[in-house]
Amino acid sequence: MALTQFDLPYAEGMHWLQQVKHLAWPMLLESGRVQTPHTQAKNGVDEETSLGARFDIVVAAPVAKIIHRQPITEVHANQVVKQTEQDPFQVIQQWLSPHVVERVTDIPFAGGALGYFAYDLGRSIEILPALAAADMPLPDMLVGIYDWAIIVDHHLGNSKLVSHCRFIDQQALTTLHQQLLQVPIERQITYQTPAFKVTGEIEPNMDQAAYAQAFQQVKDYISAGDCYQINLAQRFAVSVAGDASQAYDHFRQLSRAPFMAYLQVEDNAGAPLTVLSMSPERFLQVIDRKVETRPIKGTRPRHADATADAQAAEELVHSIKDRAENLMIVDLLRNDIGKVCEVGSVKVDALFKLQRFTNVHHLVSIVRGLLAPKFHALDLLRGCFPGGSITGAPKLRAMEIIEALEPHRRGIYCGSIGYIGFDGSMDTNIAIRTAVICNDRMTFFAGGGVVADSDCAKEYQETFDKASQFFKLVAHFKTKN
């Protein structure tokens, strides 16, 4: 099935998002690029734009909407709603199969599945207790099947409308192309919708004393031999109103990250739902059966003073504790991807690489493998879900402990956002540094791995360091309005 391509003027994905935002379920996956193509920094240090820094992907008007709340998956297509208790990953795969198209060079996504897989989708894979409050009405999985996409290539400096026309006809695609050409490219996006504003104060779901109590319980579990590491997180919530895309537009200027996303959808109850993500972490990528995951463990805050900043980075690089945490997760992921990769193909290509982001330093490792021919990218995603870097080790016990200690369900946080194409390619993030806006309330989480020798005060502060860009975002719109 040949790929149809229409040329568009070169513009950022944010521009094209505004042109299709009136359509159903508009989504933007954006790379955290700088003005020039990335080159590796000295001493092997990767800057934040080294991953996913080439393409922006814009989609809208899916031919099918797949919404899962355990145990029911709803499929909205052709003005008909069907319900099934089939495995939700299999439901997606049925829409992508059986006619896998050939991958086209320089086109990361030309149609397929795109959306989010919430952390709580893990309940459809493993048996977990139900203890934490589920006060946000979020589906466990929300994925659109898209037949066209706008691809912005920041290396080649072009934009294209692409489709394999599996579900829509050539004339409909031509009409869309003509409509997109009619809108002039503007340097600054103007909004006709109500201004985004913050209408309340940020409220955490754990004060320092509550966090310390949960932290000590984690230490007790570790001492008892239940686990080696637990990712303990707290949630922040604040009342908001107005056009959330304005918040995302400001957020992306505050903080660039390799895996940025904006999703504007409604669930099967009709509630508007917006997701803003600035994730630094790749979960799983598949290109021509080549698998890659880049787990992050180890964090230090950035400093305005260059000397202090360099000292923080140096301390992180040589931290035995942080390297041990990272290695635990690398081992977990090697095991997870090994379930569906060819025997002997799984390799650790990098350990403990320092990567700099706007507000923090991180240690990043790279694990690669080769997907076995009998498996699909969705088998890989299901087999590794949720990511070990944001649960702990061993994974299932860690998830049970998280459910017992964290006051609220995580929802999308620590799940994944990304795509699986008709060509079998996949790229997904770990949905950290991610906010959800629903019913005029914005929530976001921040957490970190706790091990036997972790310090409570430092771990508690780390949650604030990781959430610092959200605090700046809230302060901006609080002051502005």
- Annotated CATH architecture: 4-Layer Sandwich
Poorly predicted regions? 34-52
CATH topology: Anthranilate synthase
Q: Categorize the overall geometry.
A: globular
Q: What does the largest sheet look like?
A: 13 strands, antiparallel
Query: What is the CATH first-level class name?
Result: Alpha Beta
Relative strand content: 25-35%
CATH H-level superfamily? Anthranilate synthase
Helix content: 25-40%
Number of domains: 1
Number of strands: 26
How many DSSP H or I helices?
Answer: 11
| Structural class designation | alpha+beta
Residue-averaged pLDDT, rounded? 91
Measured between the Cα atoms of the first and last residue, the distance is 51 Å
Task: Please tell me how large the radius of gyration is.
Answer: 21 Å
Question: How would you briefly describe this protein structure?
Answer:
The protein is an alpha+beta fold and 481 residues long. It is built from eleven helices and 26 strands. A hairpin with a 4-residue loop joins strand 23 and strand 24 (426-429).
